[in-house]
């Protein structure tokens, strides 16, 4: 006999090929030694589809003869552990052909218990290849076959996808007592939600949760058919925890929030996860929760209440579940202060500042509730209680820090005490007791309750004068005094602040800023009334503004004192405006001005009565020249102006003399009386040629209509290198020696040719033509060498005649005419054409026989002084 599978699997055991070899007996029907081969198949029919849960170690085959019930064969075969088939060869003696047998099967467990039993089943072996298959019903007869029911002991479980749970069931007898080791089969009815991954030796089921959310049914079934059903709840793994409601509330510190905190745990499908413990913990703010842990409901929600801590501002609670490591949900709330209970000075009390200035620290109060939390949004009123100061932002509201401050406190303009009041604008009713104290620092505790929050707080401050800003004249301004003497009154300055309050111990610098003079000190300090003083001795200069400046050291502030210095009595005269060169008979312009000065050189502006005389004292035109105009005038404020003076004679080196009887005379600087306009003047003090235009004031040599002036001071010679005629010619200036040298040339003058003092005219083989008058002034020289002068001559100076010379006009002189030999030994011979009047000296310096004066027409007249 051969069995293809010896281990009973789920669904039963089927012997798919089995055979018996029957050997013949010694009877005649079969024949001696004859073997009859017969076959049949066996198909086990298990009473339970879960038969495979029982381990089979042995299989017992029993064949009984149907004729007498005797055992033809009783064989036990072993099934190797883990084997799934057995092979069996049996030899059974046949009593006759076509004999039938009763077949019995017994399946035995490793414990030796018969688990399954089948038969008798009649079988008749066939020698045909198509042998019959005999079904053998098997009935469970092992442990627990007497059970009347089965009960799942494990309560309903909740699993997450991928998790496993072991389910335990027991078989019960008629009395309800457990039957141990009873085989139990487990079946999952909802395989998408859970499957039975294994059944252990104690017939406990290990259930693996699937991916589908819901209830999974598990059935425990006995091999005798009794069954029980259990439920396993399957959920996807939680993926997040979040605040579902109750987040972001605002409440009074120390009080319970209106809404509970609800946390929700969800899976990847967005649905809630039930049955999880959620813990709630306060993470900031110091409050508390009503319960610290709760199970999620069917929607994945768990809730608790929240009482805020005593701290104003953000507070938080954290919700977490052990199933989500590192993930939590945070609930936040804002604690707001309660009713105002305390108001205290926070800053700004007891300050000191300058009058009219804004204090550096703004007065500020702190309003708190009973827990010491700042109370925002409370209106506080500030008002000036003492002093003339002012405030800005007088009704501020407390901020989030419970503090309310004004915009600024400006002290009054009068030195002394200032005060400010502060109180709640609309105090709550009722209010708790408060402490009206100033905090010494940010950690200062409130003092013992002393006054309700409605009481008034007082800020004090002290206003000091300053800063020193201005200095002004207090006394001593606008005095008058004689130049060089001290003023009668001291100069007094006062130093004040911007509001006119006097400043003590301020330094003032003094200086003379206009005029001259000396001060008793250059630096002084102010006294109790802000006053300080110096004395001032005027300078010696009168008639100008005298000023002293008092400067406040360290500030751009000054005060100016002025004084008038009066001149002393007249002590001298001076020409303020000297006489200038003037054409003959013309008024001297600008007018000649004489000043009367005191001992310090100041014009005596107080004199309006003294007469001053003026006169000519020298000049080439004197004697004979007259000073015309008003020569005596009366001073006006110490000034005498001679505005109509003129001189009637051309000349050089004129001076004027001013005088009064009691003072020393004063002489002007020299000036010239010149020809009328149209003059051409020599301007080269080094001398040069007449024809060079650069030597003349007009840039060209003189012409017939010009008056020629060779009067520029200096010692030089003008060389006459061309023959020409001019209207008038003057040689000789105020100083030096100016020489006009005529050599071999001819010059003519239409009016006069004047040789002034400091002038010289030399003629060598030259001709001087009139009809003008030739004048030689005292101090002037005329040298004529073999030349001809065709003009009248008036001589007050010195004339030298060398060699034969001729004068074509009349001569009048008070000077000297000397006749000398020339360089060639020619005697000085002077031929005068029209008369010679001598009031001076005629000297014949050569041999008597050689030198001579010949008057060809007219008379030689020797005057009284000649």
Number of strands: 85
Determine the oligomeric state from the structure.
Answer: single chain
Q: Which shape, going by the Cα principal axes?
A: elongated
Percentage of residues in strands: over 45%
Beginning-to-end CA distance, first to last residue: 211 Å
**Largest sheet data:** 9 strands, parallel
Average pLDDT confidence is 87
By secondary-structure content and strand pairing, the structural class works out as: mainly beta
Residues in helices, as a percent range: under 10%
Task: List the SSEs and their pairings.
Elements (H helix, E strand, L loop, with lengths): L18 E6 L10 E5 L1 E6 L11 E8 L5 E8 L12 E4 L6 E8 L5 E10 L9 E8 L8 E4 L4 E4 L3 E4 L1 E4 L5 E2 L4 E5 L5 E6 L5 E5 L4 E9 L4 E9 L2 E8 L3 E4 L8 E7 L9 E8 L3 E2 L3 E3 L5 E4 L1 E2 L5 E9 L6 E9 L5 E6 L3 E4 L9 E5 L11 E7 L3 E3 L10 E3 L2 E3 L5 E9 L8 E2 L16 E2 L4 E8 L5 E6 L3 E4 L8 E6 L10 E8 L2 E3 L3 E3 L5 E4 L1 E3 L6 E8 L4 E10 L5 E6 L4 E2 L8 E6 L13 E8 L8 E2 L3 E3 L4 E4 L3 E2 L3 E9 L6 E2 L3 E4 L4 E3 L6 E2 L17 E4 L5 E5 L3 E3 L1 E4 L6 E6 L2 E4 L2 E4 L3 E6 L2 E3 L3 E4 L4 E5 L2 E3 L2 E3 L2 E5 L1 E4 L3 E3 L2 E5 ...
Parallel strand pairs: 1-6, 3-9, 11-19, 21-29, 31-40, 42-50, 52-61, 62-64, 63-65, 64-67, 65-68, 66-69, 67-70, 68-71, 69-72, 70-73, 71-74, 72-75, 73-76, 74-77, 75-78, 76-79, 77-80, 78-81, 79-82, 80-83, 81-84, 82-85
Antiparallel strand pairs: 1-2, 4-5, 4-7, 7-8, 8-9, 10-13, 12-17, 13-14, 15-18, 16-17, 18-19, 20-22, 22-26, 23-25, 23-28, 24-27, 28-29, 30-32, 32-35, 33-37, 34-36, 37-40, 38-39, 41-43, 43-47, 44-46, 44-49, 45-48, 49-50, 51-53, 53-57, 54-56, 54-59, 55-58, 59-60, 59-61
